Amino acid sequence: MAKVYLINTNKNNNPDCEDEMLQNQKCSAYYTPWKYYIDTIEANDVVFLYSSGEGIIARGLATGIVEVNDYEGNENEEHYMNLNRFELLNSPLPAREVTAIIREIAGDDFDIQWNQTMILLAEHFGRKVWQQITRYCIH
C-alpha cells in the first residue's frame, strides 16, 4: 500500500529550494537528519509539496529512486526524488483546509504539526486530500 507524505518546500529557509522542486518536479530535503527522510519514500508513494503560508502547491507520485546533490557548496547535502504524474495546483490547498478534510474522518482532535520537513499521513487521509485537490485545485 502506498504511503502519503506532506513535504515542506523549505521556502522559509531558502526560496530557491521551492522553485527548484517545482521546476524539476521533485521533492527534496537538506542536511542531516532531514535529507535521510527522502530515502524512506518508496515507488508510487503519494507526495504533496507544502509551501509555508500557502498550503499544498503540488503533488506527484514518487519514483522510489533517491538522488543526491551538493547544496550550498556542501557535498551530498540534498537528497531528492523525482515525482511522476507531477501536477502544480492552480490554487493552493491551505493547511486549515487539509486539517478540516482530515478532521471529517478522524474527528476534531486531529491536528498536524506543519513546521516539519516531512509528515506521514494515513493513506485514507491522503486519498481524501487527493480528491479535494482534483475537484477544486486543478483546472
What do you see in this structure?
- This is EVE domain-containing protein.
- It comes from Aquibacillus albus.
- The protein has a single domain (4-136), classed as ph1033 like domains (ph1033 like fold, Roll), CATH 3.10.590.10.
- By secondary structure, the protein is α+β, with helices and mostly antiparallel strands.
- It has a six-stranded mixed beta sheet with strand order 2-5-4-3-1-6, sandwiched between helices.
- The chain has helices spanning 15-24, 35-38, 95-106, 123-136; strands at residues 4-8, 26-30, 46-51, 55-71, 74-93, 118-121.
Describe the structure using short key phrases:
139 residues; alpha+beta; ph1033 like fold; 6-stranded mixed beta sheet; 29% helix
The SSE order reads: EHEHEEEHEH
Mean pLDDT: 96
Number of helices: 4
The CATH homologous superfamily name equals ph1033 like domains
The class by helix and strand makeup works out as alpha+beta
Principal-axis shape equals globular
Q: Could you say what the CATH topology is called?
A: ph1033 like fold
| Low-pLDDT ranges | none
- The radius of gyration over CA amounts to 14 Å
CATH architecture: Roll
Protein name: EVE domain-containing protein
Give a brief outline of the structure.
This is EVE domain-containing protein. With 139 residues, this protein is α+β, with helices and mostly antiparallel strands. It has 4 helices and 6 strands; from the N terminus they run βαβαβββαβα.
